[in-house]
Design goal:
about 70 residues, single chain
């Protein structure tokens, strides 16, 4: 099953648009990371990748300190 592309979601559900409309407090840390990443991979949305990174590193500070 392929993940639904962000382009195909209603604007009210897209992280970048919600950031503009409602501010950063309306987004999860994973969604904020997704905005920085900008693009996902085939079959995986950028939001899923962002949430996975936050889940792996537990905090944004730990993620920011992670090596490449």
């Amino acid at each position: 099953m392929t993940a639904m592309r962000l382009k195909d979601q209603p604007p009210s559900e897209r992280p970048r648009e919600r950031l503009r409309e409602k501010g950063a407090d309306s987004l999860s840390h994973g969604e904020l990371v997704a905005i920085l990443l900008r693009t996902g991979l085939k079959g995986v949305t950028v939001v899923e990748i962002g949430k996975g990174l936050v889940n792996r590193y537990r905090t944004l500070d730990a993620l920011a300190r992670a090596s490449w």
